[in-house]
Structure formats: C-alpha cells, structure tokens
Protein: Aromatic amino acid permease
Amino acid sequence: MTEQVKSKPVPSLIGGASIIASVCVGAGMLGLPSSGAGAWTVWSSLALVLTMVVMTLSGWMLLEAFKHFDLRASFNTVTKSLLGARVNVFSNLTVYFVGGILLYAYITSSGLIIQSMTGVDSKLASVAFVLLFSLVVWHSTRAVDRLSVVLVTFMLLSFVLGVFGLAARIDLGILFDAANVNGQYAPYAMAMLPVALTSFGYHHSVASLRAYYGEERKAQKAIVGGTAVALTFYLVWLLSIFGNLPRASFGPVVAQGGDVDVLLAALGFAIDSERVANTISAFSTAAILSSFVGVGLGTFDFMADLLGFKNDRKGRTKTWAITFVPPLLLSLLAPFGFVLAIGYAGAAAAVWACIVPALLARKSRMMEGGYTGFMAPGGKAAVILVLVFGVLTIVFHFMGLAGWLPEAELGMA
Structure:
C-alpha cells in the first residue's frame, strides 16, 4: 500500500488580491477625498481610472523583470543586476522612504483615531498599534494573507453599510457642485496625481506575491484583481463623500493637512446619522490597519533582501526593527498632516513604482530569453506610458510645493 504524500495548499487568488487591495485601500480611501476636493467628482474619477491602469501595468512590468531571478529576490537584487549600482542605490532610498512614510502616516492616523474613540493618548495608542499588528508581519506572509482577508471582508461589510447610509443622503447638487457655477476642476487633478499614485502603491508587495505563488501568472491575476477592487472602492467612496460634504467644507480639512480624524469629524457634522458616522469610522480604522500590515509586509521583505537577513527568528526580528521602529519614532516625535505625507510618498513612489519598472521591463526584453515567459502587455507604448506618467507625477508634486498649481482652499473657487 503506497503512502499518500500531502501536498501544500495552493495559495488562492482571493488571498493575493486581498493583499493588493488592502495595501491600496488604506491610503486611497483616507487621502483621496481631501486631495480630490479641488478636482471634485468627474475629474477625480478620471484621474483614478488612469492611475489604476498605469499602476497595474507597472506592477506587471516588475513581474516581467523578476522572472529572471530567484523567488526570494526583491527590488534590491533585481534593480542592481539590471540597472546598475547607482540606480539601485537611488531606487532603494525611494523604496524605503515610501514604505517608511506610509507606515508613519498610518501609525500617526491610527493613534489619532484611537484617541478620538477611546480617549487614550494618541502616542500611547500608536505604540500599542505597532507592537500588536507588526507581529503579524513578523510571523509570516500567510498570516498577513489571513488577516487581510478578514480585514477586507470587514471593510466590505462596513463599507456597504456606511456607503449605503451616505448614498441614501446624496445630494446631486452637492455631488456636481451646482453652487459653484464657474468652478474650475481640471487643474486640480494635476495636484491630485501624487496621492492617486500612492493609492495604487501596492508595489512593495509584488516580490512577496510572486514568491507566495511561486510564479508570475497567478501574481498577475492577483494584481489586477486587487487594483480593480481598490478602484471600485475609491469611486463609490468619492461619490458618497462628495455627495454629502459640500466642496467648500473641505477647506478646514485641507488646512489641517487632511488628517483622517478631521475629515471624519467634518463628515459627522454633515450627516444626521450617528450610526452611519460610526460605521464610516470603523471602516476607516480597518482600512488603516489593512494598509499598515500590507505595506509593512512589502517593506519587511525588501529590507530582508537588501540587508541579507536570514528568514529565521533572529533575522526576522532584526528586519522587524529596521522596518517598524524608525516610522514609529518619527510619528511620536514629529507628526504632520496625512495628505501631506501621502503626497511626498507619491512623488517618491513614482520613481520605483513607475520609472524603475518601465526601465526594468525595457532591460529585461534586451536579455537572452527576454521575450519568453511572462511579459507585461502593451509593448513599447505601455513602457512609455508608465515612464511618462511617473515623471509627470513627480513634476506635479514639486509644482504644487512651489505654489504653481491651484490648491484646494476654503470656498473652493
């Protein structure tokens, strides 16, 4: 009688898509209403659709480049090999900066939200938040998968309940800004792009996802599934928010850096249902947590590859410290506006989430066997699109900092 060999469980596409969606949704759901207030409904929606397409393509381009390397390889190994040491150093700095600034934003916002809900000091709440949920990342990718599925399910339920309550109160006059007859919207979309790019900044997790599935095709499907879910969430969310909170009401929110607790407070005043307000707060908390563990996982794997730490208890503990301690300390010492932090992350992310993937795909196709196996669709045109989008996003960010782009102000003229 032959002994049956137990095979390892095959990772599901739902789990992978949940990781991608959860990484995206935290930053986007909480940062887009404030950053998109100037562009408002139509132009914000167009900017999101364009960004989703470009960022999905760029993720596939990373998979195309990674196919030449071991499953444990991450940005550091692949970029250094294909683009050289100098490009690699700059890319590494932007990858760690984006991961760190996003974790910083989530840690700071989680502390503020927990404080508003429980009265616990925000700094103490931030420390407890990091110590508790970073352990999931330290444990394993599978643990993040399981938690992500739970969080996305909870987010979906609370989102449906909260959005249903908001949708029942949508005022079409508010949604299409009827009070502002001569309003200009298109110029504000340029300033929105860095936050929109960050809202689809799942690229920390591409290498982890490829290693999880053991091949590129399933990772490709998980990526497009996750970004499609995120886009759907964003569009429905913006319609619900912009249909309830007048454009002019975003002035005070923007003035305070777009902090999540300020946005939630403004929304609470705009609607007359405590149940809906509480449901939206619960959804926002879950969104921050899901993005925290998702971005944490990608940054964790990147740092382990960069520094050569082993995948044992001691090695993972050192990687944990490098990943989570600096953003926690920065959050405690110098907290600032959520949207401002996300905007900086978007400008830096454009380097490694658009420019570097396009260059890697181009270089990959020049290698022996470059046109065999997995390839991102779109050919040379897609590479140019991703590259130009990344460059323009950086340009728009610095134009905004210099005051050369219109800013969302009180009155929203």
